[in-house]
């Protein structure tokens, strides 16, 4: 069930109405039923996997809690490490089998072929379970939090199951922390008109990002990536640049709809994007982009590896490891590994060159807060990240390298002048709509960058102005959104991860 579908348009109001009509003590049960129904709309049989992950991590929490009471310190630590290792081992084994096993076999077969050996691969027809990487990491985060003593083990299996499966953020995040969401499942969430209004506004903005901007860009990007050999290199450049915006609007749009839906129900989910294309360094970018995953890797991988505490070389190694693992987390393809590796190199280079940049700025009397300097820095970081997205979007390394080669040999920078621009996936009218939508997107992110949360400022406007903004936003989404007869709802990009 997609957020941008008629099914969700019917599902969410029904869930919300019954959520507030039911007595407080049983609301969480209703949300658990709704969450499992929401997940089963994709493939009912894979509900077994999320249930299995839930049971494994739930039991690991209880066992860790019991081990903490063992008197002998050596035995206590041995048991604690055993239970956390089993939890991680079993969950990652499930994730590996469904997401990476075929990838491993293909690469072993290719490697064997280099030596003239033919491997007979077993026939597998595995469908990747929607959101498996997200709910697996959320459940494993709970295991680590209990292991570290950050929170006690949850005793109620079904309430814990709701934490793992909470439908707004189940299939594409944010990857919630147990210390935030699990505790909210015990709080009373009465109907609050302000929460409902703010949640609906956030959902509306997310819909704008998804169906007005991202889905419109998708037509051009898909066309160019499918026909790049027939097009001038400048078309590939434009497609990759726009894919950076598409990916941002697609994923940030999902996160905003998820946060808004949760807010309507009275829950607070973490912010997952904070205007990443305004970042002025690679480190700043990853503090703004997919924050729930970046902080997960920071807390549960980077810091346990030693973080930056063991010297510069170890710090750089850890940055590379995190980015490479992040690449693999996104998918079983060497393109994602290259994407992760490039961003690891960016981070290492950014950290290594930071002192030199500071000296140059001081020598040239450049103020880093100068608006022009900030714009140049943000544009440079965007272009760096956008280049890595060539590999993220391409179906294979061969395609990515071929596109890059075509850009170098057949750039033809003026080939898309005039009517030619409207032959690469978007007609003239649609292209003009996209330009206006991008302007609105930029202004919206600029307001958030300057003001922080925009909604409190919006609700303080005079009533006529406020409702004019509300209705204008609804009008834009309904009139210019990509949906309706003849249009297949575009799946969110991160559902495949």
Describe the structure.
The structure is a single chain. With 497 residues, the chain is mainly alpha-helical. Helices cover 69% and strands 0% of the residues. It contains 19 helices and no strands. The protein has helices at residues 6-21, 24-40, 47-67, 73-99, 101-114, 132-147, 157-165, 178-184, 193-227, 233-264, 282-286, 291-302, 312-330, 334-363, 371-393, 397-409, 428-451, 455-459, 463-480. Helix 9 (193-227) packs antiparallel against helix 10. 37% of the residues are buried.
- Mean pLDDT, to the nearest integer, reads 90
Q: Label the structural class.
A: mainly alpha
Categorize the overall geometry. globular
- In sequence order, what are the helices and strands, one letter per element? HHHHHHHHHHHHHHHHHHH
Low-pLDDT segments: none
The strand count comes to 0
Mind describing the biggest β-sheet? none
Number of helices: 19
Estimate what percentage of residues fall within beta strands: under 5%
Radius of gyration: 24 Å
**What is the first-to-last residue Cα distance?**
16 Å
| Helix content estimate | 55-70%
